[in-house]
Amino acid sequence: MTDPLRELQEKIVLACRILAMEGLVKDILGHVSARIPDSNEMWIRCRSPEEEGLRYTNTDVIRRVDFDGKGPLLGENYQLPNEFAIHGEIYKSRLDVGCVIHAHPEAALICGIADLEFQPIFGAFNIPAMRLALQGIPVFARSFLMTRPEMVAPMIHIMGEKRVCLMRGHGITVIGETVEEATVRALNFDLLARMTLQVAQTGRKARAIDQEDIQELPDLGSTFNDLWVWRYYVKKLQDEDCR
């Protein structure tokens, strides 16, 4: 019989490794967590003395802690992320959130530094990414390390009901109801940022797609947009690990 808690822990491992494989996190920086159902606890990616980076995450470093960062063996064998408060404060304030990702994709970083605006410049090419642009990407203008709850509160306020926040000169925070949803959303935002940056580098201004075209774009559902895409990246990760 499958253990749901163990399965959730293993999904965080996969999310960390997928994000690293796709370049959204590098070396030891970045972290993923998931809310443990019916509790005030989470699984979160920590560091150990044998730290090798997110691409090589294993279940040992996915530790169970409460929203204030208290849990077994912390400080002895495992170290919480310095920005643990991002996860804990979001879970406290938003009951709809089941997964939090903090990452440092380079294209999004450059877009934030250059004040490039995210526009729906493509449509059917990637509908979820287009809708992120259409909904607007909130930008948190501070670049400090978020080590305390009071430092996270302004970002949560700016993020509002949105599910992606660009942290200027820092990185991104992405949330979702599930690990799969949040991971694919982070990948979609990275695509939007890369396209935005590449268009800007041409020196030309891309126009947003027509409202009439937007209205013709369907909602293909979470199975199509999240689950199947997640499975693709899991398989891609397995294939790369077998090389």
Instruction: Choose one word for the global shape.
Output: globular
Order of helical and strand elements: HEEEHEHHEHEEHHH
Question: So how many helices?
Answer: 8
Mind telling me the CATH class? Alpha Beta
Radius of gyration, in Å, reads 18 Å
- Overall mean pLDDT: 94
CATH superfamily: Class II aldolase/adducin N-terminal domain
Q: What are the low-pLDDT stretches, counting only 5+ consecutive residues below 50?
A: none
> How many DSSP-defined strands?
7
Quaternary structure = single chain
How many domains comprise the coordinates? 1
- How would a textbook summarize the main sheet? 7 strands, mixed
DSSP helix fraction: 40-55%
Secondary structure category = alpha+beta
Distance between the termini: 31 Å
Query: Under the CATH scheme, which architecture would be assigned?
Result: 3-Layer(aba) Sandwich
List the helices and strands and how they pair.
Blueprint: H1 4-21, E1 31-36, E2 41-45, E3 62-66, H2 84-93, E4 99-103, H3 106-113, H4 127-135, E5 139-140, H5 149-159, E6 164-167, E7 171-176, H6 179-201, H7 211-216, H8 221-241
Parallel strand pairs: 5-6
Antiparallel strand pairs: 1-2, 1-4, 2-3, 4-7, 6-7
Please provide a written account of the structure:
With 243 residues, this protein is α+β, with helices and mostly antiparallel strands. The protein has one domain (4-241): L-fuculose-1-phosphate Aldolase, CATH 3.40.225. Helices cover 44% and strands 14% of the residues. Helix 2 (84-93) crosses helix 5. The two termini are 31 Å apart. The mean pLDDT is 94.
